[in-house]
């Protein structure tokens, strides 16, 4: 399975949108980079599906353009006018050459899901390897209306407990892709570190 971060050259704030190539070509999140559909088209003529980890603006800003270009199926937990398939916790979905389990991981967003196979994790924003708050295990923001630190903590515990020990790579919604062994860490180590930091219940970003 080949995974291409198609928003890597974005000059605007966006999530990481990942094109997953293989038996079933899938875009995980659409991002906000104008022309993302053209970036996808550089690698494939056909896009079978778009899977949304959640529907914050930085993850779905260019969804309309992608759907107009490729007419893919659209999978999402929460309702959306372009959704063709509703995701639920425990569902399975094929992306590339791997079968992923849908894990409901709310807190940063009410409709947030993570996608887990035996080798890969698409974590959206519930856990990232590095951002401008922490460098080796961080968690999604919880300071806006509708967000919940307690639910993020619960989601991190759920993800930790349901994540296979064989998972080698984490594709997060922001920051760098994490590969097992970086800094001597496993993905479980990264999640544990993010969880410990979230459990402090301190502001993620100091108030200035």
From TrEMBL:
Signal peptide: none annotated. Its cofactor is Zn(2+). Gene3D superfamilies: Ribonuclease Z/Hydroxyacylglutathione hydrolase-like. InterPro entries: MBL_Glyoxalase_II, Metallo-B-lactamas, RibonucZ/Hydroxyglut_hydro. The keyword Metal-binding applies. Its EC number is 3.1.2.6. This is Hydroxyacylglutathione hydrolase. It comes from Haloferax mediterranei (strain ATCC 33500 / DSM 1411 / JCM 8866 / NBRC 14739 / NCIMB 2177 / R-4) (Halobacterium mediterranei).
């Amino acid at each position: 399975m080949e995974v291409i971060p198609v928003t890597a050259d974005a000059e605007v704030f966006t999530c990481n949108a990942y094109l997953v190539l293989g038996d079933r070509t899938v875009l995980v999140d659409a991002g906000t980079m104008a022309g993302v559909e053209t970036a996808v088209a550089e690698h494939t003529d056909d896009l079978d599906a778009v899977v949304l980890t959640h529907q914050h603006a930085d993850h779905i800003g260019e969804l309309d353009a992608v759907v107009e270009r490729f007419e893919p199926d659209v999978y999402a937990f929460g309702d959306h006018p372009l959704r063709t398939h509703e995701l639920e916790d425990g569902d399975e979905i094929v992306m590339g050459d791997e079968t992923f389990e849908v894990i409901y991981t709310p807190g940063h967003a009410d409709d947030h899901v993570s996608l887990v196979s035996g080798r890969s994790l698409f974590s959206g924003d519930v856990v990232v390897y590095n951002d401008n708050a922490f460098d080796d295990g961080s968690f999604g923001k919880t300071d806006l209306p509708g967000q919940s630190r307690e639910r993020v903590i619960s989601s991190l515990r759920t993800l930790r407990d349901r994540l296979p020990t064989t998972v080698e790579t984490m594709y997060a919604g922001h920051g760098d892709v994490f590969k097992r062994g970086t800094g001597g860490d496993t993905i479980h180590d990264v999640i544990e570190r993010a969880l410990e930091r979230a459990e402090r219940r301190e502001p993620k970003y100091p108030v200035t």
